[in-house]
Each structure stands twice: as structure tokens, then as C-alpha cells.
Amino acid sequence: MPLRIDILTLFPEMFAPVLGTSIPKRAAEKGLVSYHTTQIRDFATDQHKSVDDKPFGGGPGMVMMCQTLFDAVEHAEAQDPRPARRLLMSPQGRRLDQAMVLELAAEQRLLFIAGHYEGFDERIIDGLKPEEISIGDYVLSGGELAAMVIIDAIVRTLPGALGAETGAHDESFADGLLEYPQYTRPREFRGMSVPEILLSGNHSKIAAWRLEQRKLRTEARRPDLWSAYRDRKTEQ
């Protein structure tokens, strides 16, 4: 069965352009993944369709209330018998990296909770026990963009999503190194030439050159990744 991705949001219309374009769209057409959005506001019970309220104790902003989130999660999860791994977009969560992307891609079902406003009533986290995930140390207006980033990162790792089975294996972070430099036609452009090794047709030498370039680029641009890579190699 395809990976099922549920998205709980106040703005489901934001997802259609992203999930209906490029790799996310092709992956769905190939039957690798299915997307299902749920409008949180549909589960509000008052005449104003309220989903948030002022925080107890005072303070700026509005806080998303428990009832609508609990009901929305329970409704979405009832649509498929497979248990969902609940993910809540939060700047306080675990920082996303490629290892986590691959971990999530191995699941059968993921449920994203994309909040808005100042934050969530803490009882949503205590009661639903979602995993909090962050895409970086900054604050967005809501969790929708973060969810899109994570979904795109996950879907492109699914076998067959990129067309070439090895497509995702050579990309940055796949093994802790950044990707090697790429070139295409023309061979010469404004005094800049394609490295001769790439024109040699010697695949073993090309592979060795690319690996060396990945190491040099990682050491120069991401010393944190380079240090971790060297430590792993030393342990092996």
C-alpha cells in the first residue's frame, strides 16, 4: 500500500499547489503516496467556528484549543486502519535532518498537525503525544510551510519517485557528505570549462573524482558535517 500522508490544517488550500506539482504529484500518480487534508475548523462546535482563544495568564496572540484538534485527529485516523505516526510542526521540536527523513519515509502512515497563531494548548501535546519537529531555529506564521518541506523531503526518497532508483542516493546528506558539482552543455561558457575528467568516459575515475569533490566541498562549506563524517569513518 502507498504511504498515506494526512495533513491537519486551517489552510488546506495551501497544499494543493505543492502536492499537485513536480515530484510530489508524480509520486502520487505512481501510487507511491496518497495525500489527505483535513480542515481543523470543521470540528469547531460554536457558531463562530472558533479554533483558538486567548491564553490563560495573559500574553500576546491566540492559542489553538484542545477540542478541535483532538476531534480532527480522531476523525482523520479513523479513515484508515493503519496507525499513524503523529507529527506536530514546532520550532521547539527535533531538528529535521536526512536521517530523520529516511526514518519517516519508512512508515506506512504519517499525520501532520500544522498549527497557526501563537501555539497549541499544552494538553494537545500531552494528550495526543505527537512528535514535535522543527525545520530550523526560526519562527514561521504557521506549520503549513514546514509540513510541505518535510513532505517533499520524504516523498523524493520513496523508491521510484525520482525515476532513477539511485537518484536520491548521491544527493547531499545521503551519506553525510554534500553533493559533488554538476555540469552540462556547453563544454565552454564565458571562459569556464567543464572538468576534463567528466569528459573522459572513464566511469571509475569519474566516481573517484566526484567522491573527492564531495569531501572537499563538505570540509569547506560544512565543517560540522565533515567532522561527523570523519568520526564515523574512524569508528569503522
UniProtKB/TrEMBL annotation:
Protein name, entry field: tRNA (guanine-N(1)-)-methyltransferase
Function: Specifically methylates guanosine-37 in various tRNAs.
Reactions performed catalytically: guanosine(37) in tRNA + S-adenosyl-L-methionine = N(1)-methylguanosine(37) in tRNA + S-adenosyl-L-homocysteine + H(+)
Transmembrane domains' residue ranges: none
Binding site for S-adenosyl-L-methionine: G115, I135, G136, D137, Y138, V139, L140
GO biological processes: tRNA N1-guanine methylation
GO function term, MF aspect, one: tRNA (guanine(37)-N1)-methyltransferase activity
Gene Ontology cellular-component annotations: cytosol
HAMAP family: TrmD
